[in-house]
Amino acid sequence: MEKVAFALDNDELVEFFVLEETKFNGTKYILVTESEEDEAEAYILKDLAAEDEADSIYEIVEDENELEMVSALFAELLEDVDIEL
User: Fold this and answer.
1) Could you write out the DSSP letters of every residue in 3-51?
2) What per-residue confidence (pLDDT) applies to 80?
3) The pTM is what?
4) How many CB atoms lie within 10 A of CB 7?
5) What angle do CA 41, 35, 5 make, to 5 degrees?
6) What confidence score (pLDDT) does residue 20 get?
7) What gap in Å lies between CA 44 and CA 15, rounded to an integer?
8) If you ran DSSP here, which 8-state letter would residue 2 be given?
9) Tens digits of per-residue pLDDT, 17-75?
10) Is the dihedral of CA 12, 83, 50, 62 positive or negative?
11) Residue 16 bridge partners (DSSP)
12) CA 51, 5, 33, 11 torsion: positive or negative?
């Protein structure tokens, strides 16, 4: 599992393990977790950067409808993982 560092607005670095990534309606989403343990909390992040930008800008998905749709996609991609909202 790939571990990626993210810079927060306050320049603090946070590391997440990337479980999966997908694209939906032209937007890139990644499913990340802070730990490789079985019952770890996971987050769905979406890339807000324009396609021509070199760096990605990720934000946690908070919209309920969007979260449900993208969670369903990740559940299909990761058959052995239960995603609870």
Assistant:
1) EEEEE-TTS-EEEEEEEEEEEETTEEEEEEES--STT--EEEEEE-S-T
2) 66
3) 0.84
4) 10
5) 105
6) 92
7) 14
8) E
9) 999 999 998 999 999 998 887 777 889 999 999 888 888 889 999 999 999 999 999 98
10) negative
11) 4
12) negative
Give yes or no for a contact between 44 and 31, defined as CB atoms under 8 angstroms apart.
Answer: yes
Residue reference for tokens 């946070």: 14
Secondary structure class of 60 (helix, strand, coil): strand
* The pair of three-digit structure tokens given for residue 13, joined into one six-digit string: 């670095």
- Give CA–CA dist 48/59, Å, rounded: 7
Burial class of 69 by CB neighbour count within 10 A (0 to 12, 13 to 18, 19+): middle
Kindly tell me if the per-residue pLDDT of 1 is higher than 90. Answer: no
